[in-house]
Design brief:
338 residues; alpha/beta; Rossmann fold; 2 domains; 7-stranded mixed sheet; 3-stranded antiparallel sheet; 33% helix
Length: 338
């Protein structure tokens, strides 16, 4: 169901400006404009103390894997824990095993651009927030010399971009993401939404092991096999879930009355009705409970996002970084600043 509001259906900032309203849709130029700020983010295992990816917050990113480099004689500066006792016993001379950190770790960004994401009540559409965060992460990954790949989720298709350490791969991802975002519109014909089962099946095929998998979605359609697929995926990879919500669903007002539609049928949504309000709040709380349960059982990282706040500012805060400098805040509808 989609909430129709006048300022959300326009795609221009003015009657004759011809400029895309980036609160509603994004294009490739807008996503490219996030590069400088994205490159300043860190997704490495060593995180600031305030980061949600720090171990003290209950979940963390594991380090990259280790490749065996050589077996050599022990030196006084070596850590005794690296001694290979079998070789030492066989030769009578202390030997150590030397490892080197893997050069990179592939990162797979899964970004939701289904119709359920085409909703916003305050600052931006959830689909815009998801696209901006995905772009910022992609720039951060390439800047730290890791491979970047993606799965773009739409209601009728999944677009896969295999992880590569390549500028061309990043550009392909952002182009496909901008195209998917621009295909969203309020008059779209209703279709059966893509289930999380289908998404996680595709992720499992691309990220067999030692990947960082980041899923940016509102998790609107959790399938019967989602938990099993997620459990298997998290055994061999780091999995980060970034649920995107909207302020209206976070705090449901008691006096909201709107016309809602699925594209064909319309109904009146009236939250002054206690039963209606309780039903809507129950759906949101159940979804949060499922994600919290997955975090506890599978050791996942949860990075909650909101479409009511600037994408870069909240991502920096979640990663334990300070507020950005040198860029103006995004304007809210009506010309006010956030």
């Amino acid at each position: 169901m989609r909430l129709f509001t006048a300022h959300r259906r326009t795609t221009d900032t003015g009657p004759s400006s011809g400029t895309r309203d980036t609160r509603v849709h994004v294009d490739l130029a807008h996503l490219r404009g996030l590069e400088a700020q994205g490159e300043r983010l860190r997704l490495l295992p060593r995180q600031p103390a305030r980061s949600v990816l720090n171990g003290r917050h209950g979940s963390r990113l594991r380090g990259r894997g280790l490749d065996f480099l050589e077996l050599r004689g022990y030196l006084p500066s070596d850590d005794v824990r690296s001694i290979d006792w079998r070789v030492t016993a066989r030769t009578g001379v202390p030997h150590v095993r030397v490892f080197t950190e893997e050069r990179d770790r592939p990162v797979l960004v899964v970004v939701d651009q289904r119709m359920s994401m085409f909703f916003g009540s305050r600052l931006a559409m959830k689909s815009v927030t998801a696209a901006e965060v995905a772009a910022l992460i992609a720039y951060a990954v390439l800047a730290q010399n890791d491979r970047i790949g993606a799965i773009i989720v739409e209601d009728e298709r999944l677009t896969e971009v295999r992880p590569k350490r390549s500028r061309a791969t990043l550009t392909r991802f952002l182009t496909q993401l901008a195209n998917a975002n621009q295909r969203l519109h309020a008059e779209a014909e209703p279709v059966a939404p893509t289930s999380l089962d289908a998404v996680l099946t595709a992720v499992t095929r691309l990220a067999r092991r030692d990947h960082l998998v980041i899923v940016i979605s509102d998790f609107d359609v959790i399938g019967p096999h989602s938990e099993r697929l997620l459990a298997g995926l998290s055994r061999h990879n780091d999995v980060l879930l970034a649920p995107v919500s909207d302020p209206l669903s976070e705090t449901l007002p008691k006096d909201l009355r709107r016309i809602v539609s699925d594209g064909r049928l319309q109904a009146t949504l009236d939250t002054s009705d206690a039963a209606v309000r309780q039903g809507l709040e129950s759906v949101a709380s159940q979804r949060r409970a499922i994600l919290d349960g997955w975090q506890r059982r599978f050791g996942l990282s949860l990075v909650p996002l909101t479409a009511g706040e600037d994408s870069l500012d909240q991502l920096r805060r979640l990663l334990g970084l300070g507020r950005r400098r040198g860029l103006p805040p995004r304007r809210q509808p009506g010309g006010t600043h956030e």
